[in-house]
Amino acid sequence: MKRVLVATGGGDCPGLNAVIRAIVKRAAQEPDWEVIGSIQSFDGILKEPTEIKVLDDEAVKGIHYQGGTIIGTTTKGGPFAWPIKNTDGTWSSADRSDEMIRKLQYLGVDAVINIGGDGSQRISQALYEKSCPIIGVPKTIDNDLMATDFTFGYQTAVQICTEAVDKLKTTAASHNRVFVLEAMGRDAGWIALSAAIAGGAEACLIPEIPYDIKKVKEKLDTRFMNGKGFGIIVIAEGAMPIGGRALAEESDELGNENLKLSGAANRLAEELKLEGIEADVRTTVLGHLQRGGIPIAYDRVLATQFGVKAFEMVLEGKFGHMVSYHHPNVVAVPITDAINQQNLVKLDSSLVQTARGVGISFGD
Ligand code: F6P
To answer: Residue 265 belongs to what domain range?
Structure first.
């Protein structure tokens, strides 16, 4: 019997379970393969006793429309930076990657499929460079991975964000208010931009285009006459004014050095008030609502395509590669192509031009 180990790493994302199910269903068509999952990314392998779960037909029944991941995930630590508590109470980290690779061999693992975003795929590449037979599957609501047209989870986040714009419009119109809706996305404005177009926002502020607050206010002013009117601004959490920086808090979570982006919507509301905007300005921060719940059909299909392809890449021995969507095909690309650069919104892209074409202001 051959064994493929599946891990889900980084922030969860709608569609993870659909990928897991597709891997299991495709593997079941081969006579000699078993699928196991490592609980909470690679922590399951590194922990004593080992925490792994057999992923058979029974385990994945009906999970394709469930949010989250049945094998858990973590944004902390990992095999190259395992948190260690020192005797004086402080923390440091250790590289346990060699030990993990030995443990995978001991467990009879012939291949690994690592489903995750940029951080997870960096780990995939580093493990591959240590001769670990690994394949990556791109996951993130942020859509910021290169070398794939889309990551799964992104379209679901856009849908949730768009529904929020739709809901805010009715209350904004009833009260003649301006609403600022803060979307996730880290350094990329994909979610905010797509939701602004789909929802018909007046302005969309993204990290790729620093904004001039005067221009943002000018745009909103056109939406009000004799105090009547309303406006919706979708702002990405990483957005910044010209000459400013994205607002972020240092994370105090052990092993999670990522900065936590937060405060963009509230800062914008304050700036609008300082500019003398007359309308009431309210803010809504969508946060993790964008990551939870059921994946939309598009992401279930993409996730299923990714899962089937990932297992077929195992059969072909295409290690060191990541599954990638290049419309209309799902192909294999070197993991390095995905992690060498971030996929940010391009200023001359069709999406930006479309937004401008329907009068959405970027505050520039
Ligand atoms: O990368 C996905 C994401 O949801 C980002 O959009 C967001 O900035 C971050 O993760 C939040 O991380 P956490 O769940 O660790 O707070």
So the answer is: 155-291+346-357
